[in-house]
Specification:
The chain is mainly beta and 133 residues long. It has a single domain, classed as Jelly Rolls (Sandwich). 3% of the residues lie in helices and 48% in strands. The protein is built from 1 helix and 11 strands, in the order αβββββββββββ. A 6-stranded mixed sheet has the order 1-2-11-5-9-8, with no helix packed on it. A 5-stranded antiparallel sheet has the order 3-4-10-6-7, with no helix packed on it. It is globular and about 35 Å long. The mean pLDDT is 95.
Length: 133
């Protein structure tokens, strides 16, 4: 989780076509948008309330394997290939004494994916996508 500590700033997109590309293994501190400003590819599983925040990011999976999305605060995430959601295979909390609040793992095939973030109570969120194996 070395890339977590050196998070770079990034702005969430309101649409998938404009989603900024995430670099695997590099954390970001994302500036999120009000939920009312976002056009999600699919409706989030838990969109949150009217005052919550979210956004859309993109990442490329070069090799089939297990990938982890780490979040620094509570939020709902969906990982999509096109408009097809990936099924999570594991959930957990971050390491003790870390700023990682939530981790969700997915088994992904090569290709471009969207990461939809929804239901965040804060307008800023640290996150990172990394390959496990």
């Amino acid at each position: 989780m070395g890339g977590w500590a050196q998070a770079q700033p990034a702005k969430a997109a309101a649409r998938g076509e404009a989603a900024p590309a995430l670099t695997l293994g590099t954390g970001i501190t994302a500036t999120l948008l009000p939920m009312s400003k976002i056009t999600f590819a699919i409706r989030p599983g838990k969109p949150g309330g009217s005052t919550s925040n979210g956004g859309i990011f993109a990442f490329v999976v070069p090799t089939a394997g297990r990938y982890r999305i780490a979040l620094g605060a509570a939020a709902w995430i969906d990982v999509l290939r096109g408009t097809t959601p990936a099924t999570s295979v594991a959930h957990g909390h971050g390491p003790a004494c870390s700023t990682v609040r939530k981790m969700v793992d997915f088994d992904l095939q090569p290709g471009r994916y969207l990461l939809q973030v929804a239901g965040s109570d804060t307008a800023s969120l640290r996150l990172m996508v990394s390959r496990l194996f």
